[in-house]
Amino acid sequence: MRQILTLSLLLLLLTACTPPDYPSDWPGPTSSFFSRKGGCPDLSGAYDGVKSELSWLLGDSPDFLSNTPRTAWFEHRAILTLSDDGDSLHVDLALNERGLPDFRTHMLRYNLGGEALRHTGRSFTLEKGRDYECSGGWLYNIHFPQSERKHGWQQKTLQVGKDKSGALIAGATINQDQSIGWGDSPGIKVGTADETRWYRWPARPPGADEELVRQQSFELRRYWWVNHGTRVATRMINYYQQPVCVRVTATYPGSKTVTHYHPGKVRGKDFEACPPDWGQLGFGVTWNMEMTLPDAGGPLYRVEWQLPDQAQPQVIEVKDVRELPMMPRDKS
Q1: Considering the domain 217-323 in this protein, what is its CATH number?
Q2: Cα angle 70, 72, 77; round to 5
Q3: Per the confidence metrics, is the pTM higher than 0.90?
C-alpha cells in the first residue's frame, strides 16, 4: 500500500501542474516526466494558426506595450524542434495553406515587392540558459520578466507547454495596476493584481502540407502599359517557400542570344545552389524586366526556372509579351 501511495505521489509531482487561471474549456496541460528532454517539456511538433505573437512571445524583447498588435502576420505554421538534451529549441515559422494565398493576393493587389516579407515568418534558435529555463513541465522565457514597472505594468513570467490534445500553449503573466473611478475623473489606484493571457496553437493536421505544396508556384505576369510603344514591363515572382533558380534568354533575329539573370541573394544570405549563369529568387522576391514587342524587332524570350533539387527546368516561352497574364489594376 505504501509503495502504491509513493508511486502515485511521484507521478503527481512529475506531471505539469495546471495553473489556477488556465482556461477551463481548453484541454488540460500535459508534460509528464517521460516526455521531457533534459528537464524541459518536449515542444517538438508542427502547429497551426500562428501569427506574429509566437515569435514575439519567444523573442528577446517581449514588451506588451511596444509590440501591439501582435497578430499582424498572415497565418503561419510553426515547426518546433527541441534537441535531445533540451539545450536548444529551433523554431521555424512559415506561411501555411491559408496564409500563402492571402500573401499572394496581397502582393498582387498592391504590386508589392520584398517589403511584403515583413508579414512573413522566420527561423531562429533559442538556447537553454541564455533564452529559456525549464521547471515543473514548463519552458520559461528568461527575457520576459521585467525588473521594474512600466506604465502600470510589470511582466512576470512567460511559460510554454503542450496540452493533452497536442496543441502548443503559452501563458503570459503580468502584474497590472488596479484602479477605480467615476465618469471622466482620474482613477484611484487600489492595488495591483496578476493577470495571465493564454495563447493556444493547435497541432497541424495530417495532410495539410500536401495542400501547401500544391499552392506554391513561380509566376510571370505583365503590366498593362507600353513604354515608348515598344516595350512592356513584366514581373516574375517566387511563391515557393524556398529559393528558385531563374534565367531569361532573349534570342534576336539573326540568332543573337543574350542571357539575363537576377543577381539577388536569399534574404541576405549567399545561395550557391544555382548554376553559374543562373540567378536566384528567394521566397516572395520579385524581378521586373522589360520585354520588347515582336513588331518592334523584339526577340523570342525564354524564361527558365527550377528548384535547386530539380534535374530539368520549367520553361515559359514568350513570343509576344502581350499574351502574358496581366497584373491586376483594381486595388480595392
Answers
A1: 2.60.40
A2: 90
A3: no
